[in-house]
């Protein structure tokens, strides 16, 4: 459970459909994203911002792309 309902909805919707199929790389990327503050995560999920710094890697970008389509 996150502080923002929007994050819960987006992440839960994705996990409901794909949690059994997640690779180790995807799980690690998701863990990294879930450590972010709520507003920063929401900005990434809604494509208001692109990942930067340590988040700017193929695994995070690929997972964000899939989360945004969920």
In short:
The protein is an all-alpha fold. It has helices at residues 5-18, 24-34, 38-45, 58-69.
Write the layout of secondary structure elements.
Elements: H1 5-18, H2 24-34, H3 38-45, H4 58-69
List keywords for this structure.
70 residues, mainly alpha, 64% helix
| Shape estimate | globular
Instruction: Please outline the major beta sheet.
Output: none
| Backbone structural class | mainly alpha
Question: What is the radius of gyration computed over CA atoms, rounded to a whole number of angstroms?
Answer: 11 Å
Q: Secondary-structure element order, as H and E?
A: HHHH
Instruction: State the helical fraction.
Output: 55-70%
N- to C-terminal distance: 18 Å
Number of strands: 0
Arithmetic mean pLDDT? 94
Tally of alpha and pi helices: 4
Contiguous low-pLDDT stretches (5 residues minimum) are none
Kindly report the oligomeric state of this protein: single chain
Structure description:
By secondary structure, the chain is an all-alpha fold. It has four helices and no strands. The protein has helices at residues 5-18, 24-34, 38-45, 58-69. The model has no long low-confidence stretch (mean pLDDT 94).
